[in-house]
Every structure is written in C-alpha cells, then in structure tokens.
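Private note to self, pasted from the team thread so I don't lose it. Backbone tokens:
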C-alpha cells in the first residue's frame, strides 16, 4: 500500500519523500530483521520498485542527484541481499555486529568501535544524529569515528588563535555554518508556489517543515 503522505506531493517531491521513507525501512530491516528472509526480500522489492517507477522522471532531477539516487538504492539492495545470505547460512558462532564496546581498563565508559564498512554505508543514507540510536551511542561518537576512519572531513575550528610578532594573540571566532540545500530563488519560488496550490492553508512554519521533509534544508527567512 502506498504511503498517503507521498501521494499528495508533487511528482519529483513524491519520489524524494518515498526515498526517505524507504531508507528508514532499509536501516530498520538491516538492524532488526536479520534472519527474516521474507521481510528482507519485501523491503528489497520496495527499493527496486521505487527505482523502476522513478525512471520516467529521471530528467526532472539534476544529474548529480539522480546518480546519487541510483547509487544509494543499489547500495540498499546489496546490503539487503547480504543480510539475506547471512541469515540463510550463518557462521557457527558469529553474528552481525556493527558496533562493539572496548574496555580500556580505566575508569569511565568503554570506547564504542563502529564497523567502518557499516558506517560508510550508513552515512550515505542518513546523518550521525539518526544513525546514533541504532548503535546505542551519541551522535558525537558517530562523528568522531567517521573522522577517525577518514569518512568525513573535519569542520573548520570554531575558535582560531594567531600569535603576532609582538606577542599579541588574536582569537578569531568562526561560527559553524549550516549545510543548507543549494537551490536558486527562482527554483524555490516555483516549489513554494506549487506546494501552496496543494496546501493553501500552510503558514510559514508548516511550509518550512514540509520543505524539510522533502529534502530542502533552508533557513526560515528564505521561506515566505
């Protein structure tokens, strides 16, 4: 059965929303349905169906976004296939483990190690904040492991100190910059116009939330 929230979106946004719902199901399946080949196959079928039904809209997407869309679904299918094979023929005493707790022998919490292959794949589907609950750790831990494994680049230092020849130390504060979606004013106006045709009672807050759900991360002041 199709998701009712998706059916009321525009065709391209329909696909984007369906993709976000699919990635939720894939991650949940990989974490909770190992050993249930029928359910894994069902999610796999949903992934392939989304890719097939999206083909006629290929040229409505920017080339880079479409390539990422195809690659991500291909990765999902491979992960689901791997989970099916692992569940059908498991090693005698092994189980799927993507994170482990390692004690340092000192006081404090044990260090959480995350499988590099799992983390690399998970980061193509979602950010640290949404990966963390599945691993039982904080988003900060996920970001640290991603940095250690070279999967992401470190952000510029928020506070930078520079020593001048006369001994004076200058502290420069650079606030973090949000990773907003790149979209022109004309494109955004078109998206907002079509959205308001469907949801004429949307105020700024609801419109902003709707755009975010469709994958458009924008500052509130741009949504009017």
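Design output:
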């Amino acid at each position: 059965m199709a998701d009712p929230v998706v059916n009321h979106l525009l065709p391209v946004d329909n696909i984007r929303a369906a993709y976000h719902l699919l990635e939720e199901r894939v991650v949940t399946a990989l974490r909770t349905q190992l050993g249930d080949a029928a359910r894994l196959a069902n999610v796999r079928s949903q992934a392939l169906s989304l890719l097939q039904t999206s083909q006629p809209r290929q040229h409505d997407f920017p080339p880079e976004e479409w390539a990422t869309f195809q690659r991500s679904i291909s990765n999902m299918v491979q992960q689901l296939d791997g989970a099916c094979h692992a569940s059908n023929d498991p090693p005698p005493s092994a189980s799927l483990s993507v994170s482990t707790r390692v004690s340092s022998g000192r006081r404090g919490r044990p260090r959480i190690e995350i499988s590099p292959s799992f983390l690399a794949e998970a980061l193509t589907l979602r950010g640290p904040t949404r990966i963390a609950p599945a691993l039982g750790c904080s988003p900060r831990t996920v970001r640290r492991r991603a940095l250690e494994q070279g999967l992401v680049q470190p952000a510029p230092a928020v506070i930078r100190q520079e020593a001048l020849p006369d001994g004076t130390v200058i502290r420069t504060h650079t606030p973090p910059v949000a990773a907003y979606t790149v979209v022109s004013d004309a494109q955004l106006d078109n998206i907002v116009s079509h959205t308001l045709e469907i949801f004429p009672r949307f105020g700024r807050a609801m419109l902003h939330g709707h755009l975010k759900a469709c994958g458009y991360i924008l500052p509130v002041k741009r949504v009017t």
